[in-house]
Write a structure and sequence with these properties.
The protein is an alpha/beta fold and about 180 residues long. It is built from 7 helices and 6 strands, in the order E-E-H-E-H-H-E-H-E-H-H-E-H. It has a single domain, classed as P-loop containing nucleotide triphosphate hydrolases (Rossmann fold), CATH 3.40.50. A 6-stranded mixed beta sheet has the order 1-6-5-2-4-3. The radius of gyration is 15 Å and the shape is globular.
């Protein structure tokens, strides 16, 4: 899949200090790697959304048990709060977060309405390969199917763009930064 534009950001978008971005996608899509590089491109900070999960969520995922919406809600609210605090301080913040469903993205936007989404997407085969080579990560490859079943594409009214993970992380970050800068 090549880069695909979604939402009202098709017109002109200028990244300014205080930009809020969620690098989203299923596990193994490269959210952390691309997010860290994108934060550098935007001269901002990066937060790995996994670090904001409550311990109970990490325990469930480590045991191979998919999270339900009740598990995700406090986590998503925390991500929104982090982005909202960055907005209030005028800081640029990039957070890596799966943000798989529209309702999850809505929870984030409730606290930080100007958040834009960089959706990292790839084939099941590539995602599976990447998950197999991540030693020590709490998300087992067995949960990939669950995440893919949960994933809802960005709506045309959501501010976001899809990027193909077949590209290198540096190329993805540079392309996302270009899109964000308009």
């Amino acid at each position: 899949m090549s880069e695909a534009m979604v939402g009202p950001e098709e017109q002109s978008t200028t990244a300014m200090p205080g930009d809020r971005v969620v690098v989203m996608g299923v596990s193994g899509s490269g959210k952390t790697t691309v997010g860290e590089l994108l934060a550098i491109e935007l001269d901002g900070a990066f937060v790995d959304g996994d670090a904001l999960h409550p311990e109970s969520n990490i325990e469930k995922m480590s045991a191979g048990i998919p999270l339900d919406d009740d598990d995700r809600e406090p986590w998503l609210r925390e991500i929104g709060a982090e982005l909202g605090a960055a907005a209030a301080a005028g800081r640029t913040l990039v957070i890596g977060c799966s943000a798989l469903k529209r309702s999850y993205r809505d929870l984030i936007r409730a606290a930080a309405p100007d958040t834009r989404f960089v959706h990292l997407h790839g084939t099941v085969e590539l995602l599976g390969e990447r998950m197999q080579v991540r030693p020590g990560h709490f998300m087992p490859a067995s949960l990939l199917d669950s995440q893919l079943a949960t994933l809802e594409d960005l709506g045309v009214d959501e501010s976001g763009k899809v990027f193909d993970i077949a590209e290198t992380p540096a190329d993805l970050a540079a392309a996302a930064a270009r899109w964000l800068r308009g």
